[in-house]
Design brief:
alpha/beta, Rossmann fold, seven-stranded mixed beta sheet, 5 helices, disordered N terminus, Gpn, GTP-binding, Gliding_Motility_GTPase
């Protein structure tokens, strides 16, 4: 998909007149994988963030080893918006909390979603399995993007695919949640996957 088809102006505060379609997209993943950063990087409006400070109650519950400087955590959702396809498509992005104790919120946020982008951390791929299982239970199509942290190991994507037990047709990419361009391309990968799933079946000529 041509990069000219997505908006590169992060200060749009209105729906473009060209919009003909909209979709709800969930940005999911385990605790600390970069969902809030991702939504903030791509959103054309000031993102809505529902966060609370990490307190002593999180000790022994939330794993901060991969993000030792993290001081807040999403407790409801992050919300952002972005135009794609020459402003004809608008995506409403809903970032989920990462901790498994918020599973009821995950279920609510995925309701009505066209699809999900699952962020994963190569340092803790095991942490992605519960989110992936939930999406599969709810039959929500998804793509996976490995958020490339500076100190994270880099594995060949085919090994990551095997570790996450992904189906062959599930898109798998890399992105940097701090970089808008790479985040947008991760979304484009998801949208192309969803478009292919919803494309009409080819006509089959009847046999004589």
């Amino acid at each position: 998909m041509d990069s000219a088809n997505w908006s590169d102006q992060p200060a749009v505060h209105y729906l473009a007149p060209a919009v003909t379609r909209s979709a709800k997209i969930v940005v999911a993943g385990a605790f600390g994988v970069g969902k809030t950063t991702f939504v903030g990087s791509v959103s054309e409006v000031t993102p809505l963030r529902m966060e609370e400070p990490i307190t002593q109650a999180s000790v022994g519950v939330d794993d901060l080893r991969g993000t030792p400087h993290k001081t807040t955590t999403t407790v409801a959702m992050d919300f952002g918006r972005i135009h794609l396809l020459d402003d004809r498509l608008v995506l409403y992005l809903f970032g989920t909390p990462g901790q498994t104790r918020f599973r009821p919120l995950w279920e609510g946020l995925t309701e009505g979603a066209l699809g999900a982008l699952v962020l994963a951390d190569a340092r803790d791929l095991e942490g992605s399995h519960e989110v992936l299982s939930l999406l599969e239970e709810q039959q929500t199509p998804y793509a996976v993007a490995i958020n490339v942290f500076p100190d994270a190991p880099r594995y060949p994507l085919h090994e990551v695919r095997q570790a996450l037990a992904l189906d062959p047709d599930t898109p798998l990419a890399e992105c940097d949640a701090r970089d808008r361009r790479s985040c947008v391309y991760a979304l484009i990968t998801l949208i192309e996957h969803l478009t292919a799933r919803h494309a009409p079946a080819p006509l089959v000529e009847p046999r004589p």
